[in-house]
Amino acid sequence: MILHTEQTTSNPTDFSVIYYNALQSNRKKPEGNDRNRFDKQNMFCVWRAYLEGTVQATQFRLGACDNYKVQVADPAKMARLQKEQQLRKCIEQLTVIQAELQDSVKELTKSRKKYQEAETMAQAVREKTEFETKYDPNYVFLSLSGQNRFIYMLVVGYKELSVVLKSVWPLFL
């Protein structure tokens, strides 16, 4: 199985491919004392090819990282700026809302005090009214509802008497 060098340039990080290609390029095996020198040259070529492949892969990765950084940096910066602008607007709105809420709380406190004062006065009037109705039998005529009740009782009594008079009137004639 012989691999071509075009295949190794597409993925230079595969150590086994680089090693195999380096070995294939140095197929001759010398005999005798030159063998040690040949082995050293062969190992040197293998390691040089491996390091060159690693450098190429690293440069490719660094280039890809730089491209990715450029592609991501601008949209990320724009998104961050938009979020900051939106945050500023929200802070301004929240400040206005907080001021309105504080004003509402102040108005509510004032209203509560007025209500409590009115409730205290109403309770005092109720107590005074109860006291007067317990000890004054003519107090019924002083209030409008008492007058209405008295008029109703008079009208009902008049109707009952008129019915009785109608039945008794012929007897007197």
Automatic annotation (TrEMBL):
At the top level, the lineage of the source is Eukaryota
Family matches, as InterPro entries: AH/BAR_dom_sf (IPR027267)
Keywords recorded for this protein, A-Z: Coiled coil
Point out the coiled-coil segments of this chain.
98-128
Gene3D superfamilies this protein is in? Arfaptin homology (AH) domain/BAR domain
- Protein name, please? Uncharacterized protein
